[in-house]
Amino acid sequence: MEKLSTFIIDSDNNSRELIRNYSSEIDFIEITDCFNNIEDAYSTIVREQPHIVIVDLNDVSGKVFNYIEKVINTQNKTKFIVTALSYDTDSIIKAMRAGAREFLPKPIIKDDFEKTINKLKEQFYGTEKTTNCKIITLFSNKGGIGKTSIATNLALELANITKEKVALVDMNFQLGDVATFLDIKPSFDISYVVQNIDGTDDSFLLSTLDRYKDTNLYVLADPPYMEQAKDITPEQISKLFDALRKTFSYVIVDTSNVFYGKTITVLDNTDFIMLVTIVNIPAIRNCQRCLDIFERLGYDKDKTKIVVNRYMENDEVKAEDLEEALNKKVYWKIPNNYFTIMSSINKGLPVSLINENSNIAQSYRELATVLSDNIYKQKVAKRIQRNPLIDYKKLIE
Q1: Running DSSP on this structure, what letter comes out for residue 128?
Q2: CATH architecture type of domain 4-124
Q3: DSSP string computed for 225-268
Q4: Cα–Cα dist 56/112, whole Å
Q5: Cis preceding-peptide flag for 234 (omega within 30 of 0)
Q6: Is the pLDDT of residue 375 over 50?
Q7: Which residues in the chain are classed under CATH 3.40.50.300?
Q8: Model confidence pLDDT, tens digit, residues 76-123
Q9: What is the C-alpha to C-alpha distance for residues 15 and 81, in angstroms, rounded to an integer?
Q10: Distance, CA of 361 to CA of 123 (rounded, Å)
Q11: Per the count of CB atoms within 10 A, which of 106, 166, 317, 390 is most buried?
Q12: Does the pLDDT value for residue 379 go beyond 80?
């Protein structure tokens, strides 16, 4: 097995030695060169094309992001791991957008270092199959609170930040709006894909999902006619999810706001449910009902994440009031920005293309970063396997 040649770029001698020590216990990597800054290392990286470059974000040259992007644009063999002692979310986002694959906070922990190197090893040696795919479903049993907008913007930011393949699937079978929100005219839809899913491979999915512009986001639209939606079975939905897991690193699902058999099948196959609400009394009551139903469905508490949309700090009802009422922490708050979001919807463009510096665009970027495997490792809830003949109505009565 060829060893993975690795460069270290760090002005701190102790950090370099720590990485050397960790690497000496891994038989498939070899530290082949060290540099104080990326400016000095650039020409050598381009010439020798090492497998891995471990670079400190606090490089005094201040040009780390530019040089990472230049290397990635020149050749895509080299994988960058960025490290930092002092950092913020925005810096990590910039590094990921430039092309870095992993982030390790300092001081680097041995176990995290080994996991990161092993993940890259799988990519280099071709043994990686997307087994760590996350399926994230946006759900609310109350319409009109921005669920589809969150799904589309989150999916695009995940694709941009991670540089991995992301699928955005519209499983609101009767009133889906994903294609409209992104202003695309899909060549195929979910009814065609599920009818032809048996015996297909990765190339089939990639050819039937619509790639959004020049990104790694692939969109699977809802059926154009309600009659087609009726013919889709829970079994076909489960098979579709199995196929998506093999092809994509992340799957974002926008689903119906009604509890019925197909919706519950979607939720059963989901790793994380992002339960979307707004901060007012009727919405909170609906949120309470959803959490109660999720418990009766047998879902782990960690499976559900509360996302507050259109949040304003000066609202009469605070996020703390919501947490007290639900007995559950709020996972994320998306700020209220009426003009940006309405312009986004009316023009069929993500908010990052309307105003990338807006508070709502920044919030979506940060949410995507938190959800990314590159930054935080999260416990995946146990998947539910149900008898296909089960009476779903009894579960939620």
Answers
A1: -
A2: 3-Layer(aba) Sandwich (3.40)
A3: SHHHHHT--HHHHHHHHHHHHHH-SEEEEEE-SS-SHHHHHHHH
A4: 16
A5: no
A6: no
A7: 134-396
A8: 789 999 999 888 777 888 888 888 878 899 999 999 899 889 888 877
A9: 14
A10: 31
A11: 166
A12: no
